[in-house]
Amino acid sequence: MNYEIKTFNYHSPEYKQALQLRDKILRKPLGLQFSEAELKKDEHDIHFGLFEEEKIVACLTLTKTDNGKMKMRQVAVYDTAQGKGLGSKLSVAAEEYAKENGYHTMFCHARKAASNFYLKLGYKIIGDEFTEVNIPHYEMEKRLA
């Protein structure tokens, strides 16, 4: 398979594909929907997608924060594409982007069920388990060398 990783803008056709993916994988299973306020937060973020022939198969969003830290959020991979290393490839590309833009640390609020994915990428659990969107999460971070 030939995959392409690219960034895209808020409200672009690629963003709309990513939003559908995020909704299917991250929201609907929890009985949640995006609010307008949540979507408005995406406006100033950096959006990454992994595409196969113009169709998105994985996505994530980066949010700039203070103190040289970048937050990775809304990481999603279609069910049919999971287990192929695509989420890892996309995460590494996002880390490279952050590093190239002067950030020294990537962090996320990882669902407990996804924490092993991040541990394999070199992230460490910071602090205690907490609840977000009604499910257990960990804050995790990785120093970008």
How do the strands line up in the largest sheet? 1-2-3-4-5-7-6
CATH architecture: 3-Layer(aba) Sandwich
What's the total helix number? 4
CATH superfamily: Gcn5-related N-acetyltransferase (GNAT)
| SS-based class | alpha+beta
| Total E-strand runs | 7
Please write the CATH class name.
Alpha Beta
The gross shape turns out to be globular
In total, the number of domains comes to: 1
- The percent range for strand residues is 35-45%
| CATH T-level fold name | Aminopeptidase
Radius of gyration: 14 Å
- Distance N terminus to C terminus? 30 Å
Q: Helix and strand succession? A: EHHEEEHEHEE
Largest sheet: 7 strands, mixed
Which residue ranges are poorly predicted, with pLDDT under 50 across at least 5 consecutive positions?
A: none
Mean pLDDT: 95
User: What is the percent of helical residues?
Assistant: 25-40%
Polypeptide structure, described:
- By secondary structure, the chain is an alpha+beta fold.
- The protein has a single domain (about 5-105), classed as Gcn5-related N-acetyltransferase (GNAT) (Aminopeptidase, 3-Layer(aba) Sandwich).
- It contains 4 helices and 7 strands; from the N terminus they run βααβββαβαββ.
- The chain has helices at about 15-25, 35-40, 85-100, 115-120; strands spanning about 5-10, 45-50, 55-65, 70-75, 105-110, 125-130, 135-145.
- The protein starts with a strand and ends with a strand.
